[in-house]
UniProtKB/TrEMBL annotation, chain A:
The lineage of its organism: Bacteria, Pseudomonadati, Pseudomonadota, Alphaproteobacteria, Hyphomicrobiales. Residues 58-246 form the ABC transmembrane type-1 domain. Belongs to the binding-protein-dependent transport system permease family. CysTW subfamily. It is found in: Cell membrane. This is ABC transporter permease. It comes from Jiella pelagia.
From TrEMBL, chain B:
It is found in: Cell membrane. Pfam families: BPD_transp_1 (PF00528). Its main location: membrane. This is ABC transporter permease. The keyword Phosphoprotein does not apply. The chain crosses the membrane at residues 20-51, 81-106, 118-141, 161-190, 211-240, 272-292. It comes from the Bacteria. Keywords: Cell membrane, Membrane, Transmembrane, Transmembrane helix, Transport.
Amino acid sequence: MIKIARLFLALVLVFLYLPIIVMAAMGFNASPLYALPFDFTTHWYQELAGNGRLIEAGWNSIWLAVLTAVIATALGTLAALALWRRTFRGRSILRILLLPPIAIPWLITGTAMLVFFFWTGIGRGLHAMLIGHVALAIPYVVLVVGTGLQTLRADLEEAAMSLGSTPIHAFFRVTLPLLLPSIVGAALFAFAVSLDQFVISYFLSVPGMTTLPVEIYSAIRKGFTPEINAISTILLVASMIIILGFARFARPGGIGERS
Amino acid sequence: MPPEASAAGLPATRRRMPSWLATAALLLPSYAWLTLAVLLPLAAMFAFSFLHATPLGNKPVVWTLEQYRAFYDQPYLLGVAWASLSIGLWTTGICAVVGFAAALALVRATAGRARETLLILVLLPFWTNGLVRVFSWTMVIREGGFLDVFVRWFWPSAPSLGFLYTTPAIVLGLVHGYLPYMVLTCYIALLSVDEAVIEAAQSLGARWWTVLFKILVPLAAPGLVTGAILIFVPVIGAFMEPRILGGRVGVTMGTVIEDQFTQAFNWPLGSALAFTMLAVVLAVFATFSGVLRRSATT
Amino acid sequence: MLTKLRTNPGVYDVVLINSARSQQAAGEDLLTPLDLANYSNASGLAPALRDNAYLKTDGKLYGVSWVWGMNALAIRDGMDKPESYAALAAPEYKNNVALFDDAVTMIGVGAFLSGQDMNDPKDLDAVAEKLKAMKPNVKLLWSSEDQWNKAFSAGEFDLSVYWSGAAVRSQRKFQLPLHFVVPKEGAIGWLDSLSIPATSQNQEAAAKFINYMIDPKFYVEWATKIGAPASANEKAMEELPADDLNRDIHKPEYIETMTLMAPLPDDRRTAFNNLWQEVKAFYAA
């Protein structure tokens, strides 16, 4: 049974990585039209090294995603605690209000933000993108942390409190460690939502201050070249090294382990 | 104030804020942010959906309900809505089965560092650009693409397996994009399932399918439901995957709405369609959660 | 552009306006009437473009035609050149056609095929019928040049509705084996013109600048060194090298047979968009 389970996991990983491998491979293919047969070259990596615009956009994306993940995870976790640990009137309405940012296509949300931000004087730029990204990521964080809270037994927290610990103490000593896998998961989500967000960034960016997805999105019109595969590959490999390194050196049983 | 009262009251207030205040303090940052950045702009869009034409330039503003009659005036939209719905259901269904199984395999068949590493490997593809990922799929599944090249290695005269520009191609791209959501939410839910419960069931002679459907699935239900919301809801409005992978068949509510914003420049119709879609999605979940609640009480 | 012009009086001295928008701008008194006698290089302009009705309002000319282009067909080298748009529905191109995902262009093709005025087809049902007949042939709808290039180079289709300017670029930059074909119904044309805003402070300098922009010498340099759309100045086109792709594709006789996109009233534009949406849904079903 365990062998079958592991084989299944391996198959899922193959499925998930198939297009990623193709993406990486095509970054080394000579044809600007991605045509086969395969013809090895490092030309696109050399082009990329000289493409300051794309590299700067890559850095902007990373910073924006990190900030979004930190802010959205902090705010969203607090909201999830209220929505799943407390009872009050209007709770279900507040839960439903999380859905529009997910359900309404980003294109419409982006247009709406552009019009609204222009009108209120928030304007465009990295700050506007940060406001937009955090807002989009919050519902994901709340729902993911909420799932964790739903499956977590509330009685442990109550037991701690009945033994004389304060709610805040109980939260930090009991709930938070148990909730940590969900919170880390939610942060990874928020990071991904921001990193891949192109429509809203597209509307809220100003020339010279863009993110990688915006550059990619506008490249569809100009024609996108394997340079984009090259930078995507570098980004992926870098994040893989950082995260796996982090997992290796983090305390034993870091994320995803019951403590 | 009598001294006893303050002596009795003080420690209590120091330990505990009034409950409503604590709730408000927890909720306020998120909801203030959401209101400012998403809900108010969307409310403005909602208002636009009652206009006759996009409110730009010096055209007079005319209020109307005509945009919400779209499904009546253009009945083919019902077919489009049905196609989107079935793509959404297929995608969500496949993600639920594969994602739950993968999460179960992660929790039950791996442990410690290997498990963490595998979980991260599942989530990482998510960090690459969606457009690049979808585009890479086109190179795999087109006629004479990588899939065909691979198969013909073993069987040179194989017929083409390419299925680019079909509905299954759209579902494939969407499943690939959204599967990590389901794996993560199910994983979080399954983590807290108590080992003792399963062992108890097994010692009482329960077969694996009894354990699966009577214990694991119900206990992981919050994860499955959250995953389904996070997948079904955006998939209904997806436009990039249908457009690139669907070719001729790639017409969905998402692409129709996108066209209203980018090509036809008809924001009122586009937002009316989007809010109608939101209403349908909310209705589906209301019914669904009602059914869940009823089955939970019986 | 019109919005910018309305909200920024006095900022611009020369504006580029699509011929379909020219009358709207002139009607709002945003532009100055022009006299071609002041433009020495105007003598070479193709008459059909120079005197185009869309550039005129109340008999006065408001724009100097500058560059133009066409939407027609592209076919893979080695295949027979289609004579009519009807080829898009012909059985020999089964599952081998790409259409341009643009309402105005595709309604135009449908109108040509049903013998109507592409800018004001009275019988939209006939247009829909002609477009729906293409269903078995349609493999994909393209919306960007890049998408077209990649799909064509992967051999996904042989016949397509395509832009003339893009056809030049696809051949020049990527050596794609294609021919641009203008069928007997003519092409769907667009024309960009240069105008002087009524609020311009430097009318004379503006006129000089426009004259320079339509100068054949300037155009040849622009077209051969950087790449440019086709010039409305016939003399400029003649001065391009004889084997120039741009010249080869944008033949002067096509100007005679092409229909320029007209200014569309809002309700007609909406009707076009809805019809194209319906046809796309029919293709998908």
